[in-house]
Amino acid sequence: MTIQSALSVYKNTLSSHLKIFKLNVFLNRNLKPDFMNLTLKVWRQKNASDKGGFVTYNVKDISTDMSFLEMFDVLNEELIGKGEEAIAFDHDCREGICGMCSMYINGRPHGPLKGTTTCQLHMRYFKDGETITVEPWRAKAFPVIKDLVVDRSSFDRIQHAGGYISVSTGNAPDANSTPVPKDIAEEAFDAAACIGCGACVAACKNGSAMLFVSAKVAQLSLLPQGKPESKQRALSMLDAMDEEGFGHCTNTNACEAECPKNISVANIATLNREYILGALEK
After folding, report:
1. What is the C-alpha separation between 282 and 278, in angstroms, rounded?
2. Which domains does the chain carry?
């Protein structure tokens, strides 16, 4: 889908999002939500080759019950009404699951709340009259497509390099035929919680994707089904990461601190172990 067609779809669905929000406000009118006025400094950039820059917008009567993305919906509705171009930003499920939302808010990926995606961030955590600066992810491997939208297809290519398991065709094995200890299953599940949003890359001063890669490697290498290819998987995915232009790990743990799903840097230790074992056997 081109950015033009995506914007067209967005314009067609914008009114629906706002109608749903207004209905929720009406149904909960006795809660008397507060309203605020804000100044937004938003990064606008036509394409990857454009220099880009900040544009200041004043938004009024923003409900504290709105999500951060709903606030942008209101701003875009105003811009479209004036005949101006809407601000392009990534979004999909708006439930903190898909990993599409990617805004750098006041110097932090996804904003001020720990363990929270942009779409789950609500305006009640900001103050009336506050100035909010919004930028796209900043990384060599995440080139800007338009405004706040960046190209994260590099993550897909890393995943294609080794983020899978090979299984025999035929009937699926019985679910209980391969026992997995509870603590291992929980550790793998925690690693699998990674939504691939790229906040770890945006937070890292080297633009490293080590936390993302380690989560994808760990969730498979910890389980019996993923062990046969675990060493080669680590080698292939780290090679792909380097080819995409991501930097090396800084060991400052900024990635874990800003991850909306609280992915642990302990996974990086698992990745390093698998990589070393794979390199020794190579």
Report:
1. 6
2. 3-145 (3.10.20.30), 152-164+179-281 (1.10.1060.10)
